[in-house]
Design brief:
about 170 residues, mainly beta, Secretion regulating guanine nucleotide exchange factor, single chain, Signaling_Regulatory_Domain, four-stranded antiparallel beta sheet, 2 helices
Length: about 170
């Protein structure tokens, strides 16, 4: 729940830390503030077992361990970034040189749209939704502009296993 003043509240299942309250109950029926998000939040998203937030300054946070099981299975021997295993908001690494305006979540993937019209994706690519040949992207990867006919992306939506992006002129499925 994103309040008018940019605070984030959460409720529901917390079995995988997806509520962003690390020592909270496994189930919460009364919305509670995610205290670790100090800066004003402008966009939120919830996946199956993870959640995201973009702050007013364009920083992306992710929490919930849902993507970690796919990452461990599909990237054996590789150390996963903290934001994939955190039960509290953790800054998504790999986006330091961009300013996020929007975040999205599918069942097992995440995405971020920047103020420059660039789309970054990470997580499971089981259904090809990340426009990559890799089965799993542990860090954000930019979808190349040529996939959008060199147009800037203006809006993005995520389904359970797909992404849809809108450019200034066209709608393309990524």
């Amino acid at each position: 729940i994103l309040t008018e003043n940019g605070q984030v509240l959460s409720c529901g299942s917390n079995s995988f830390g997806q509520l962003g309250v690390p020592h909270g109950p496994r189930r919460c029926v009364v919305p509670q503030a995610i205290e670790l998000l100090k800066e004003k939040v402008v966009c939120i998203a919830a996946g199956l077992r993870h959640a995201l937030a973009a702050t007013a300054s364009g920083i992306v946070f992710q929490w919930g361990t849902g993507l970690a099981s796919s990452g461990r299975r599909l990237c054996p021997g590789q150390t996963l970034p903290l934001f994939l295993t955190a039960k509290e908001p953790s800054r998504v690494t790999g986006l330091e040189n961009s300013k996020a305006t929007c975040v999205l979540a599918g069942s097992d993937h995440s995405a971020s749209l920047t103020d420059a019209g660039e789309l970054y994706v990470w997580g499971s690519n089981k259904h090809g939704q990340l426009a990559s040949l890799a089965a799993f992207l542990p860090l954000p990867q930019k979808i190349e502009a040529r996939c959008f006919q060199n147009e800037k992306v203006t809006s993005v939506w995520s389904g359970w296993t797909h992404l849809v992006a809108q450019t200034g002129l066209l709608w393309l499925r990524a």
